[in-house]
Here is the input.
Amino acid sequence: MPETVPVIAVDGTAGSGKGTLARNLANELGWHYLDSGALYRAIGLAVLERGANPDDAGACSEIARGLRIETQTLPESIRLLLDGVDVTARIREPEVGHVASRVSVHPEVRRALLDHQRAARRMPGLVADGRDMGTVIFPNACLKIHLTASLEERARRRQRQLEEMGINARLNTLIDELNQRDLQDMRRGASPLIQAPDAILIDTSACSIEEVHAKARACLPGILTQSDKGTHS
Ligand code: DC
Here is the structure.
């Protein structure tokens, strides 16, 4: 029964470190990993490629419903295929992130991704990252972590990531863009980014990747015992 498969939900703002934490936890536990943001990015990319208006709910949901999104897990990475085409690198482009945030406000677009996300809940467990993993998609997750970090620190991290991709960006521009994205993700009516009441809050501003991992890890032992009971009953 999928409902008995344990889920760890990691939600937070862009650049808070949720992807890194979720991937590392999944690797350590040998669980599946769901990057829900990649799915919204795939729709954002398709909307861009087709020249549709990201604010047009009807057009975006039609595109979302017609897309075939597949994820392939390789030993070192996860590939995303859109209608059979590998778009793993393209969905990481900054413009695609912004369009993803705009298309994700439409409830019909979110509905189109619901089954895909819930289907990722498979034995022995799932670590899922996004904005609404603990609040909407997996409300009965056995552990919910909400990550946050200062705007400046998140912009610095984004600047370093872009540098690695050969893209130079000004810090102030990145701060403005992240701020705009935060507001859009938090203020939308459908599944806004909010901290679930039962989520553990971790501020990653002054933490290394290892420190964040250790804090999350410290919440695990009891949870794993609980999920063992769930799967054997
Ligand atoms: O996590 P990310 O930066 O790759 O996500 C890109 C956008 O997708 C984000 O700004 C809002 C949207 N998103 C969402 O609405 N719900 C999710 N669970 C994940 C992402």
